[in-house]
Design brief:
Shape: elongated
CATH topology: STM4215-like
Strand order of the largest sheet: 1-2-3-5-4
Largest sheet: 5 strands, mixed
Number of strands: 5
Number of domains: 1
CATH superfamily: Phage tail protein-like
Radius of gyration: 16 Å
Helix content: 10-25%
Order of helices and strands: HEEEHEE
CATH architecture: 2-Layer Sandwich
């Protein structure tokens, strides 16, 4: 399976002008403060899992759901615009013929520090993996 984090980062950089910083996070939980320019989008491959149980004998391809996390860190008055641009960029994107379209899974505020909101979203990408 291919980690598409760098492709997602490139898309956000080129199609979401609201974000000043686009990168990979170096933390899992919200920090008290971020030493980067805001608004920021920080993208990582959060996990993957089988879509459905299939008989183990004869399986040479399997669908797997990759989950990507995106920290959206912005002031309250920039959060909606940042999230809207992100949604317009990611929703429905299909990276190649072995993938489905990117889907929104969930999101929520993880921390509020003064005027800064730490919003974490999860996006899913169905991919087909092959034996060998």
């Amino acid at each position: 399976m291919i980690d598409r984090s760098n492709e997602l980062i490139g898309m956000i950089e080129s199609q979401c002008p609201a974000f000043v910083t686009v990168d990979c996070p170096w933390f899992m939980d919200a920090l008290d403060e971020l030493d980067k320019e805001l608004p920021a989008a920080l993208v990582w491959l959060s996990g993957d899992g089988a879509v459905a149980d299939e008989p183990a004998s004869l399986v040479t391809t399997q669908q797997v759901m990759q989950t990507y996390g995106v920290w959206v860190i912005a002031s309250r008055n920039h959060l909606d615009q940042s999230r809207t641009e992100l949604r317009k960029t990611l929703l429905g994107w299909v990276p190649d013929e072995m993938s489905g379209d990117v889907r929104y899974v969930k999101g929520g505020a993880e921390n509020i520090s003064g005027d800064i909101v730490w919003w974490r979203e999860y996006w899913a990408l169905p991919v087909w993996i092959r034996q060998g």
